[in-house]
Design goal:
Blueprint lengths: L1 H18 L9 H8 L4 H16 L9 H19 L23 H13 L5 H15 L12 H20 L2 H15 L6 H14 L4 H4 L7 H12 L1
Helix pairs in contact: 2-3, 3-4, 3-5, 4-5, 5-6, 5-7, 6-7, 7-8, 7-11
Length: about 240
């Protein structure tokens, strides 16, 4: 009986997630359930990040709720700082022993920071976004940090930051930054030390980011930076 009820709840959550791309103030059952169960705050942070990613929508579309997604990411950062901030001293919470996502639990703040940059890339000043992406790439390149596992999560996150730089270069009409960003992405894609699943993941994301429906280009979206990037990429290939 419990298993059947659990499947019903899971089905309800999955259906709820499908609709969250349409409404900026969507209720999130997963977050509420995690809070009710009083789980470790890092899991609340992750629920907020996942909802923000759904709110940002599909590749090639500038969603109207991008700012709502950023608000969720900012909230995740605030929860992190209240519970795991480096200045908390003895009041800082311990991380759950078992890692559960792309990076080790102790480095999850990096995921939050990357997601904020990805949100900002939808509507913020692109020169500022490019600088933030570049700073994050430097942080992800720190060889003294143990990123945990052979899947090399820092390279995956770096790839995304180079893509942000690529988008910024298109909006700012800066060919030098475009070349730098593209080379950075290609260097990661060509890294023979990356596991095959990571290569497949990057190839799939790259393919989706370079395709867009012709109908999207006709939508009346102010400052459609994503469309500018697509046009420039097609011209410069």
């Amino acid at each position: 009986f419990r298993e059947v009820e659990g499947m019903k709840v899971l089905s309800m959550i999955l259906n709820e997630w499908k609709g969250q791309t349409e409404f900026e103030d969507s209720y999130d059952t997963l977050r509420s359930e995690l809070e009710f169960r009083n789980v470790d705050p890092i899991y609340i942070c992750n629920a907020l990040i996942l909802q923000a990613r759904r709110l940002r929508g599909l590749t090639g579309i500038k969603p109207k709720n991008a700012k709502a997604a950023r608000k969720l990411v900012v909230e995740a950062g605030e929860i992190w700082n209240r519970n795991y901030g480096p200045n908390l001293g003895e009041g800082r919470l311990e991380f759950p022993e078992e890692d559960f996502c792309l990076v080790p639990n102790r480095l999850y703040k990096t995921v939050i920071d990357v997601q904020q940059i990805l949100c900002d890339a939808r509507f913020d000043d692109m020169s500022k976004v490019e600088k933030n992406a570049r700073d994050m790439i430097a942080e992800l390149s720190d060889e003294d940090v143990d990123w945990g596992g052979d899947h090399r999560p820092n390279l995956i996150l770096k790839w995304w930051m180079f893509q942000v730089m690529l988008r910024s270069s298109a909006v700012c009409m800066d060919l030098d930054i475009w070349k730098e960003a593209r080379k950075g992405m290609e260097d990661i894609e060509g890294d023979k030390k990356l596991p095959a699943p990571v290569h497949s993941y990057l190839s799939d994301i790259k393919g989706r980011s370079q395709w867009f429906s012709p109908s999207i280009s006709k939508q009346n979206v102010p400052y459609n930076d994503l469309m500018k990037m697509r046009v420039l990429l097609s011209d410069w290939n």
